[in-house]
Design brief:
Blueprint: H1 16-24, H2 44-57, H3 64-79
Helix pairs in contact: 2-3
Length: about 100
Amino acid sequence: MEDHRHDVVVIAAGYAPEMQQFLASFPGLASRFSHRFEFEDYGPEELVTVVERHATEGGYELSLHVRARLLAHFAAARAAGRSATAASPGRPSTR
């Protein structure tokens, strides 16, 4: 495998703390990942857009009230220092 190291692509994805724990779990594992990318969390407005798109794909339309409530929820999660995506409805927060 070592002879073909540059011919193989492995993608591991997750939240930063869990990825750091994963890479530290085995000696030498971190050195096997030559490129690392970290993406910013989606902002509250972007998350509302994601929900709207999923709703539309399912044949639903968000009312202005629901849109406002979602925006407030995601903004509050961000203000509290939690990842808005980790605090999304239907997904338990780890904090």
